[in-house]
Amino acid sequence: MVANKVHYRHLMLFFFRKGKNATQAANKICAVYGESAVAERTVRKWFARFKAGNFDLEDQERPGRPSTTDEDLIKSEIEDNPRSTLRQLAEMLNKSKSTIHDHIVKIGYVNRLDVWVPHDLTEKNLLDRISICDSLYKRNEETPFLKQLVTGDEKWIIYKNIERKRSWGKRDEPPLITPKAGLHPKKAMLCVWWDWKGILYYELLPYNETINSEKYCSQLDKLKTAIEQKRPEIANRKGVIFHQDNARPHVSLTTRQKLLELGWDVLPHPPYSPDLAPSDFHLFRSLQNSLNGKDFNSLVEIKTHLENFFAEKPERFWKDGIFKLHERWRKVVEQNGTYII
Questions:
Q1: Considering only CA atoms, which of 273, 285, 268 is closest in space to residue 119?
Q2: pTM of the full predicted structure?
Q3: What ranges make up the beta strands (E) of 176-312?
């Protein structure tokens, strides 16, 4: 039985890398090995682990400890749709709303005005944000470095984007219903790096493919080449000051070794701080506005949209996105570490 489980997991990983979703993978496995071979819910949990960059097919949880796979899946769904409700998440995982709520609390999300925000900041989180922002603010005051800054991140691009509109209504009337894209929409991951002058390098990964440390390091090599070609002044003289968030592929041992090899000055980034990541608070917000209501039939169509979006942005757009950091660092210190909303 154990051997069968491991075999099924190998098949799940195979279908994941082929770009299949959990439902398709479950159907294909059951078509060959029988209807009871594997449950779709099980496949979804393993897909959540793969999406998080963990491709170990062995059971990792120790006896007496709860599985973290549900938490990975919940985190993934909230990142894709911060307006997901407890009911929707409970139906997806076939668990009670109270169990889902406990998982959400454990991974650090809290609900603010019907939107899940990344973290209910602890005292340590607040102190980390204050300390790092204060040091970066003072450093930039003494020796301005934002024109040397290269920043980057990843974003899922959905093939069929629902147009979300705001509307006014009476207090005692229910809000207008907006159709959802579904819990498992077809999507492609955008990996992008930029500075105060514009895009340096980006990749659009194949359908449903995600990032891991090995892939990320190969991208950093390509980014290095792009910087040498497009920004020789920082590649050869001033030096690259590199900014990234704390996602797992970004902070793995392999990635840290690669960044040491590249010789870049890597800025500290406080945990749970998308409000201090220019891609999150500036570039991706604008990009998402351009995607609302758009339907794509292929990666080529998505890439064309991205190329047009990047090309149409004026020089001021890129400069504002990077130079806002100085003011945001100051605000975090003044607000005692709280989020900049």
A1: 273
A2: 0.64
A3: 187-195, 198-204, 241-243, 265-266
